[in-house]
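R.M. (postdoc): so does anyone remember the format we settled on? I'll just put the structure tokens first.
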């Protein structure tokens, strides 16, 4: 039964990836909106002197350090999201009640926003991100089909 479910999900992912790849303009409106909102937020931080102007020269140590710091901030936010998962500890025998879904989502969003910031500072475009995301999706699907 589990194999049929996995096969169904893989088939659906392949169809979705094919559909998006065949679009004339693969940029997704919602994704572009998120990208633009993050650029606007970064502009606020730049005006306040909290971040440098983007894009950065990724050949320079200083550019790589800023992007690294943004990605570390993203990892910190994922850690905060993990802390909301009170019953995820394998060694715990008791169950805690309550799951703060909004807090969990908020922390994951914070992480995504830091990742978007890192991509923006690295001068990645939404179209470039989508192209590589689709390529990676196809690679992952092929790996699952081959028993990776």
């Amino acid at each position: 039964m589990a194999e049929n479910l996995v096969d169904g999900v893989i088939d659906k992912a392949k169809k979705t990836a094919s559909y998006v790849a065949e679009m004339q303009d693969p940029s997704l409106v919602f994704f572009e909106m998120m990208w633009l909102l993050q650029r606007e937020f970064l502009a606020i931080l730049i005006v306040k002197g909290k971040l440098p102007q983007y894009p950065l020269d990724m050949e320079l140590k200083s550019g790589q350090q800023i992007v690294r710091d943004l990605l570390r901030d993203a990892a910190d936010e994922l850690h905060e999201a993990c802390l909301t998962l009170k019953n995820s500890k394998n060694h715990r025998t008791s169950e805690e009640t309550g799951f703060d879904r909004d807090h969990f989502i908020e922390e994951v969003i914070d992480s995504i926003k830091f990742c978007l910031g890192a991509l923006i500072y690295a001068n990645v475009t939404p179209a470039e991100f989508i192209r590589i995301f689709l390529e990676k999706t196809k690679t992952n699907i092929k790996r699952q089909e081959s028993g990776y």
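R.M.: ...and that's the designed sequence above, right after the tokens. Also worth knowing: The mean pLDDT is 86. DSSP finds five helices and no strands in the chain.
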